Amino acid sequence: MKINDPIISGAVRSVKSIKAVLTIWISTLLLVCLVALPLKSSVKSVLGKSMITEQLQDGIDVSVLADLGNNLRTISSSFTAGLVLIMLGGILLNVFFNGGLFTTLKNDEEKYSTAQFFRGAGIHFWSFLIITLIVSLIIIFTVLIFSGLAFAIANAGNNTPSSIRIPIIISIIIFALVLPIILLIVDYARAWQVKANRSAAFKAIGIGFRQTFRKLLSSYPVMFILVFIQVIFSWFMLKFITGKGPQTGFGIFILFLLSQFFFIVKLLLRVWRYGSVMSMFEKHPE
């Protein structure tokens, strides 16, 4: 199997699933708005048109914030609660929509169907949730191992900047090389789950491991390339958005539109990865 075959097939499948991507984007935007708009209203009701808002226009003044007293605690608690809701809702939405995405990507000859997308999202939600939790624990465990080894090596050295920096850099590089393997495991597990049309999360994880290491030489380069593209794009997006802020309302509006465009492209890159793994799985199914 040539490396570019599943990459091209995944790209074709992702383009065919553009409606699913737009559905995910709109749903995510609505989730953020449902939390952000009430928070904005509560902040506005607390601050009102007081002199505080004028003082904060030139930057954050700690003494001004301290004067808010209980109001600051109310705002911070509302912000924290909203952030938790967005994160939890985002995770659940991501798991739900992944079921629909893999369902629509399982055959590149079929046309996209919205009914099929939501049916697959509902059918595979619980099994995909279990798979996601298990793989998340694997990632956390892997990060802890590499972090512990890096700090243990650093502490065993002479505490110079280079003796601390080098083990950390090496650990990051090793984790970056291991990450595509972990992603192959979870994506192969979800691909089998959808193709078998069964709710068997633990068996899917086992098959994900087996498929990954059985076809590691052919599938690892594909995953590495796709993950590398995602990382580069995420870095570029972060640098662009966190650059010099707009000075006018129109500039803020343009930045918002660009950020949403970047978010859609990021979703397409993820679907590209899913489609490529599905293509590799279909060539040599379990």
Write up this protein.
With 286 residues, the chain is mainly α. It is built from 11 helices and no strands.
Secondary-structure blueprint of this entry?
Elements: H1 4-16, H2 18-47, H3 51-56, H4 62-67, H5 70-105, H6 114-123, H7 125-156, H8 161-196, H9 201-214, H10 216-241, H11 249-283
Annotation keywords:
286 residues, single chain, 85% helix, 11 helices, mainly alpha
Summarize the entry for a quick read.
It is built from eleven helices and no strands. With 286 residues, it is mainly α. It starts with a helix and ends with a helix.
End-to-end CA span? 17 Å
Strand content range? under 5%
Radius of gyration: 23 Å
Low-confidence stretches: 49-62
Helix/strand-derived class?
mainly alpha
Order of helices and strands: HHHHHHHHHHH
Mean pLDDT: 82
Kindly state the number of beta strands.
Answer: 0
Q: Please bin the fraction of helical residues.
A: over 70%
Oligomer: single chain
